[in-house]
């Protein structure tokens, strides 16, 4: 398969010949109730198609990183969402994936909101819990492009685990992983994981959620 629109290193910056199906310690991840990591959820062909579709859309630059909103536009500063923020259906190029997440049992309903985030080399996102009054009990993110390490931190004990996000992988947050652990990505150009160094490149995440309408007072 020929890739001509971008550097092929942005597709996968680990060697498929040398790495196992996942570099994560799944036994360790199981200690966080509701945290699920699924490598290779989509095919390489689907990965390329999503990458091309995302980059054919218009990006917003109202954050330090570029974003796209679908279904509903989320107000990051107010941490608020209601029906007035509805901007339409999910685009045709992603609706099949949204239905698949429901059909495969990862979400109890077809997600109605999608945020696309672009992370250039060195960019990250502060540790956070997705707005509880705004979104349902499941958050799902699909990784495209570069690898990175996502940090999960228990809000009470401060226990921390690292999850190595590979291209084409899915990370599912339910239960404790959704509400009792923060998640974030440190802003740096390389990751150290299990004694190996991984250079970051451009990464795009597709984050699916279900909106809870009529949000009132929002707690940060």
CATH architecture: Sandwich
Q: Could you report the average pLDDT, rounded to the nearest whole number?
A: 87
How many distinct helices? 4
Report the strand count: 12
- The CATH topology comes to Jelly Rolls
Termini Cα gap: 45 Å
- C-alpha Rg, in Å? 17 Å
Poorly predicted runs are: 1-19, 215-220
Structure description:
The protein is α+β, with helices and mostly antiparallel strands and 220 residues long. It has a single domain (27-209), classed as Jelly Rolls, CATH 2.60.120.1520. Helix content is 15%, strand content 29%. The protein has helices spanning 26-29, 44-55, 92-103, 175-179; strands spanning 35-38, 67-70, 113-119, 125-128, 139-145, 148-154, 160-165, 170-173, 181-185, 190-193, 196-199, 203-209. The chain has a 6-stranded antiparallel beta sheet. A 4-stranded antiparallel beta sheet has the order 4-9-6-7. A hairpin with a 2-residue loop joins strand 10 and strand 11 (196-199). It is globular, with a radius of gyration of 17 Å. The protein starts with 25 loop residues before the first helix and ends in an 11-residue tail after the last strand. Residues 1-19 and 215-220 have low confidence and may be disordered.
């Amino acid at each position: 398969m020929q890739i001509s629109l971008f550097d092929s290193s942005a597709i996968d910056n680990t060697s498929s010949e040398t790495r196992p199906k996942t570099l994560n310690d799944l036994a360790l991840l199981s200690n966080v109730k509701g945290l699920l990591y699924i490598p290779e959820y989509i095919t390489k062909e689907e990965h390329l198609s999503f990458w091309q579709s995302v980059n054919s859309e218009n990006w917003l630059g109202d954050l330090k990183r570029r974003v796209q909103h679908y279904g509903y536009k989320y107000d990051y500063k107010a941490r608020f969402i209601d029906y007035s923020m509805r901007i339409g259906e999910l685009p045709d190029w992603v609706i099949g994936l949204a239905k698949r997440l429901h059909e495969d049992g990862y979400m109890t309903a077809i997600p109605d909101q999608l945020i696309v985030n672009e992370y250039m080399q060195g960019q990250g996102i502060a540790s956070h819990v997705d707005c509880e009054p705004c979104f349902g009990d499941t958050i799902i993110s699909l990784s495209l492009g570069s690898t990175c390490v996502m940090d999960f931190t228990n809000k009470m004990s401060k226990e921390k685990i690292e999850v190595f996000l590979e291209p084409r992988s899915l990370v599912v947050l339910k239960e404790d992983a959704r509400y009792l652990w923060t998640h974030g990505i440190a802003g740096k150009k390389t990751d150290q994981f299990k004694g190996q160094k991984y250079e970051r490149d451009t990464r795009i995440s597709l984050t699916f959620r279900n909106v809870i309408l009529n949000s009132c007072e929002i707690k940060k």
